[in-house]
Amino acid sequence: MARRTWTVREGADLGRAIGEVRRSRQMSQAEAAGTVNLRRDRLAKLESGATTTAVNQLVRTLRLLGAEVTVTFETVRGQAPMTSEDDQT
What we know:
46% of the residues lie in helices and 18% in strands. By secondary structure, the protein is an alpha+beta fold. It has one domain (2-82): 434 Repressor (Amino-terminal Domain). Strands 2-1-3 form a 3-stranded antiparallel sheet. The protein starts with a strand and ends with a strand.
């Protein structure tokens, strides 16, 4: 397994990270939505970057205070390559 790290620069990055993790698990949006008790269309909106003002403020505050916000997850061999927005550790 490989480890991937996604740097979160804004709230929308969290949603894109969710999509990357889901795809790395080879799950459909419907499967992932069922797992976390969301409607599939809501998960799709999150993955596309839809976010709330509160999430944006939290991420911005952390970054302005000098914190790096990241999402790190394990992948399985043979998964799709990372997108250009991903950071690899």
